[in-house]
Amino acid sequence: VVVKMKDLHELIRRIFAAVPIPEEHAGLIADMMIDTDLRGVVSHGVMQVKRYFSDFRAGATNANPQLHILREAPGTVALNGDGGLGYIAGHKAMSMAIEKARATGVGAATTTYHEHIGSAGKYVRLAMREGMVAFCSSGRPSRPFPPEAMINSSADSAPFAFGIPAGPEHPDLLCDFASNVPFDEDFFATQPQIFFRLIGISHLANMLSGTLGGQMREWDPEASRYPVANQSGFYLALAVENFVPFEEFTADIDGTMASVSRMRPYPGLAKAQLPGGPELDCERAYRRDGIPVCAEAQQNLEEIAAETGLRVPW
């Protein structure tokens, strides 16, 4: 089913408000879910409503977290998410990183003790809209691994995103991806370097977020009131003008984008684009025509709407 963006946003907002959670948080979650679906990231948009709604209702996630600062310096901040949904802590962390980057050129933040942050790309886009280079990763606590298991199982599919703002005529460069792939012996035989690179990226994401964020201090799985709040995040914003003039920077990025667009595309694709280009095409079409909601997400939303006495807009 295809749903107008504003109608889908309002349904999500009202579903989370019915948990209940604070209206401000319900609106923020709806904003960020829609931002994800607009980019075609189906797995981490409204598909996640059922998971979060169920965790809130079961008391596994704090419905009204009170974020607090663990440590702060002029260019850095470490936040505790108080067992809430990662969207709340992640949005606050990147917002603070952006403010610090305006003041010092570089802003970095960590978050810990919260649930899922969703896709990392939406936090990077917050900074890119301010004309900044940005990075985001998320991970889980370190843990002992069974020695009989293959090394590939030590890697989570931790989200990993970085973005470079372009000028108004071209899409921003935005790489937003999971950092691991399931092991395949035949694929490994021909492309082992892919697995080596991704396992390194996965552990990097976990260490930058979980370890640097202090997850080992802030979350005790045996004593935690909110058992699914086992994730952490890392957020970085760089103010371009502290390095080079912004106009010169974006002109160079635009030149690269224009040059790439004239190249021969990958087999089976209509045009050559760097990461971020296909997602921008999705966003433009979905804003105009409505957001496609897959059958599974549609059924989930209908069930929750019926439970909370809401009407779906289709």
Provide the descriptors you would attach to this structure in a database record.
two-stranded antiparallel sheet, 11 helices, 17% strand
In short:
By secondary structure, the protein is an alpha+beta fold.
Describe this structure in words.
The chain has helices spanning 5-17, 23-38, 49-58, 86-104, 121-128, 185-190, 192-211, 215-218, 246-261, 277-289, 295-308; strands at residues 2-3, 68-73, 76-80, 106-114, 132-139, 159-164, 173-178, 231-239, 291-292. With 314 residues, the chain is an alpha+beta fold. A hairpin with an 8-residue loop joins strand 6 (159-164) and strand 7 (173-178). Helix 1 packs antiparallel against helix 2 (23-38). The N and C termini lie close together (8 Å). The model has no long low-confidence stretch (mean pLDDT 95).
How do the strands of the widest beta sheet line up side by side? Answer: 2-3-4-8-5-6-7
Question: What share of the residues lie within helices?
Answer: 40-55%
Q: The biggest beta sheet, please?
A: 7 strands, mixed
Strand content: 15-25%
Determine the N-to-C terminus distance: 8 Å
User: What structural class do helix, strand and pairing data support?
Assistant: alpha+beta
| Mean pLDDT across residues | 95
Show unreliable segments.
none
Order of helices and strands: EHHHEEHEHEEEHHHEHHEH
Radius of gyration: 20 Å
- What's the total helix number? 11
